[in-house]
Amino acid sequence: MSLSVALYAPDETLFGPGPYPAVVSCYGGPHVQFVQNAWGSATADMRSQFFRSQGYLVIKVDNRGSDRRGLAFETAILGAMGSLEVDDQVAAVQYAVSRGLADAGRVGIYGWSYGGYLSAMCLAKRSDVFRCAVAGAPVTSWDGYDTHYTERYQGGTPSSVPEAYAASSVMSHVGGLEGALLLVHGLVDENVHFRHTARLAQAMVEAQKSHELLAFPNERHSPRSLKDRTFMEKQVFSFLARWLGPHPTPP
């Protein structure tokens, strides 16, 4: 099986040949394709372009469960959400490390919605690979999300397949979480309710795990006002730069 990967490498004339501190940009859920040989919002997004302009390698991979790769590829995560997606994100990082592009000790990940869920799961399950994560509006437990969406991919209800829901919950894996986690959420999110972030934050407290919370009282599933979006981008970049460090500019 092959995976489609996009690498946004910094300009060698400014930052040298690498390896670079790396940031994984993920979504990873059904009905979305991040990597394609075309110009579009998924491939030419400004955040990725900004990160590479600052000396960071950006990695994108369409893991199993993503769109437009056929039925077997898309349904591989059935009843096992938050498992194969993590494996494939790790494989993309390892590929970038093997090519001398990514610094294995300075890798972060960020995502929103399903991507926020996947970011949190990657840090919880593979803190040996990811040093930090930004989880935006994450679904932290699928028993609290829309049933018409969730039951298609979990293979049933929380009462009929409880083991699938338990295994796919971020809270089930908080004990293994090391590194830095930034949670970002709008308090009036009508899609992924803030309760998801609140549950994870409480689990982090109970496990005595440090975390940071960036809340937007007037925002819904993603910040829309210019001031809120500007503030969010600055905070996300500051957090990742703090934990990954800058790439030294060659003399």
Domain count: 1
Please give the CATH class.
Alpha Beta
Main beta sheet, described?
7 strands, mixed
Give a count of the beta strands, DSSP E runs of length 2 or more: 7
Kindly report the average pLDDT value.
93
Please tally the helical runs, counting DSSP H or I stretches of 4 or more residues: 9
**SS class:** alpha/beta
Please give the order of strands in the largest beta sheet: 1-3-2-4-5-6-7
CATH architecture field: 3-Layer(aba) Sandwich
User: Helix proportion of residues, in percent?
Assistant: 25-40%
Multimer state: single chain
* CATH topology title: Rossmann fold
Distance between the termini: 42 Å
Order of helices and strands: EHEHEHHEHEHHEHEH
> Which residues form runs of ≥5 with pLDDT under 50?
none
Cα shape = globular
User: So, the CATH homologous superfamily?
Assistant: Alpha/Beta hydrolase fold, catalytic domain
> How much is the radius of gyration in Å?
17 Å
Strand portion: 15-25%
Describe the structure.
This protein is of the alpha/beta class and about 250 residues long. The protein has a single domain, classed as 3-Layer(aba) Sandwich (Rossmann fold), CATH 3.40.50. The protein contains nine helices and seven strands, in the order βαβαβααβαβααβαβα. The chain has a seven-stranded mixed β-sheet with strand order 1-3-2-4-5-6-7, sandwiched between helices. Helix 4 (about 85-100) packs across helix 5. The longest helix is centred in the last third of the chain and has 19 residues, at about 225-245. The protein is globular. The model has no long low-confidence stretch (mean pLDDT about 95).
